[in-house]
Amino acid sequence: MVLRPDGGLPRRRAAESDLSPRKREGDAMKKGIRAAAFVLLAAIMLHILNSILCVKSVSGIDQARGLYAQPRGRVDVLFLGSSHVHCNVDTRVLWEEQGIAAYLCTTAEQPVWNSYYYLVEALKTQKPGLIVLDVFTPARFHEDIQEKWLAENLDGMRFSWNKYEMVKASCDSDRISWLMGYPRYHDRYARLSEKDFGNFIWNRREQARWKGYVELHTHAQMTQPDVSGITDRAPLTEKAQFYLDRIVALAKKEGIALLFLNAPYLVEESDQLVYNEIAAQAQEEGIAFLDVNREETYREMGLDFDLHFADHAHLNAEGAVLYSSFLGEWIRAHYEVPDRRGQKGYESWENQRVAYMD
């Protein structure tokens, strides 16, 4: 035996193998907890930063994002489509006059393929009894890629496989950026406003009070259109037809009633040709198509083209009240939609707020 210089016995060097299995497991667990805590903190910080920097817009992004704030399973009537919905359908009127718990999951010039993917997204948390699909965009726009309002149509949906599929259908370049969102707006620091700090999860109750409606206060005198003599038909594009069929199939699969809708606006002859085709298809499928662009319907609503339009495509606040009152009565007469007034769980409809656009 070799003695130490001080004459004592040599110390025994602690080896890894001498550590108890319990101690080794404890050390590994501590490291794992620290790593998990770091990842969780980073995720929370990234979420907060993303909530602040992400673009806010009442032309579609906010409507899509607001879907996630709605009380789970409470939306009875889900609207899909373009600004012809969220600028024309006053959800407060639907609620106050008919007790309809509606939500407008609509975006500017929403192509029918985006309508389909928003329907898929909505059905993750909602089971409406009625889907109302605005069919303006398949009648008016005939491009397979509609770039003008891409941000309004894509940015509001959460990251998911469904969003990946929607991005694929909506654009053919820069898809990663559109999917992630953050790379496109990470430099918004200089343009932040008070609104950018109200998009947090703890504001969920306040967010739920908005149902998508945007009130317009401008006024424009319009000439009433007359398309009563147009009886010919024109087809939808192949892509629009494909996704319209998918919406119909999904609604049937889920056992949800479907209504096609066309709002008051300065309808053109080329639009009406496609509406006639949609009407024929709707009849074959047993789907109602409420096309209000008829002289007799204007009179029934009390709609005046000199008074009630904000521009050629949208009603002002007064016109929206007339249209929404007519629409609520029509829905109540044709579908078994519950009157939710006074029921628990529908408080956000009782005290709705509204967005405004100049």
Short description:
By secondary structure, the chain is of the alpha/beta class. The protein has helices at residues 21-53, 61-66, 83-86, 91-98, 112-122, 136-140, 150-154, 161-170, 175-180, 182-185, 204-208, 238-254, 269-285, 295-301, 317-334, 347-350, and strands spanning 77-81, 102-106, 130-134, 210-216, 257-262, 288-291, 353-357. α5 runs antiparallel to α8 (161-170).
How would you characterize this protein structure?
The N and C termini lie far apart (94 Å). The chain folds into two domains: 21-48; 57-148 and 208-341 and 349-357, Rossmann fold. Helix 13 links the parallel strand 5 (257-262) and strand 6. 45% of the residues lie in helices and 10% in strands. It is an alpha/beta fold and 358 residues long.
Oligomer description? single chain
What share of the residues does DSSP label as strand, in percent? 5-15%
Widest β-sheet, arrangement of strands: 2-1-3-5-6
CATH fold-level label of the largest domain: Rossmann fold
Order of helices and strands: HHEHHEHEHHHHHHEHEHEHHHE
- Into how many domains do the coordinates divide? 2
Topology:
Blueprint: H1 21-53, H2 61-66, E1 77-81, H3 83-86, H4 91-98, E2 102-106, H5 112-122, E3 130-134, H6 136-140, H7 150-154, H8 161-170, H9 175-180, H10 182-185, H11 204-208, E4 210-216, H12 238-254, E5 257-262, H13 269-285, E6 288-291, H14 295-301, H15 317-334, H16 347-350, E7 353-357
Parallel strand pairs: 1-2, 1-3, 3-5, 4-7, 5-6
Helix pairs in contact: 4-15, 5-8, 5-12
